[in-house]
Automatic annotation (TrEMBL):
Identification of the protein by name: Flagellar basal-body rod protein FlgC
Family designation: Belongs to the flagella basal body rod proteins family.
Keywords: Bacterial flagellum, Cell projection, Cilium, Flagellum
Subunit record text: The basal body constitutes a major portion of the flagellar organelle and consists of four rings (L,P,S, and M) mounted on a central rod. The rod consists of about 26 subunits of FlgG in the distal portion, and FlgB, FlgC and FlgF are thought to build up the proximal portion of the rod with about 6 subunits each.
Amino acid sequence: MQLDNVFGIAGTALNAQSIRMNTTASNLANANSVAGSEEEAYRGRRPLFKALMDQEMTHAGAQFVGGVKVDRIVNDPAPIRKTWEPGNPLADKEGYVFHSNVNEMSEMVDMMAASRSYQNNVEVVNTARQLMMRTLEITKS
């Protein structure tokens, strides 16, 4: 594996983890939202990653075999919570409002995991850069 591939692979991981953190931020922002029907209630989003295992799977945005990409973002299948709040202006004709299916605790865990993965890949880039600089220093001598 060439050293420049390391930068590309780590770059795909940085991009994927950035998307993961953005979806987590969106989920947390909408965690306490309510709606008048189950269809209108906010559903948490989850990015699905896909490993780039061979050349046919790569594209211009993620051109390095061994990298990762976000294949798609799907809705969380967890059920929507329904509570009886007849005084809420968003309540349906039976007095129910529908809360998002976002679990704030699991979102915080996911955010910390995404942040840690992002930091690890930044460290990979920094280490590869240091190795390249040391190699250049050796060739000067």
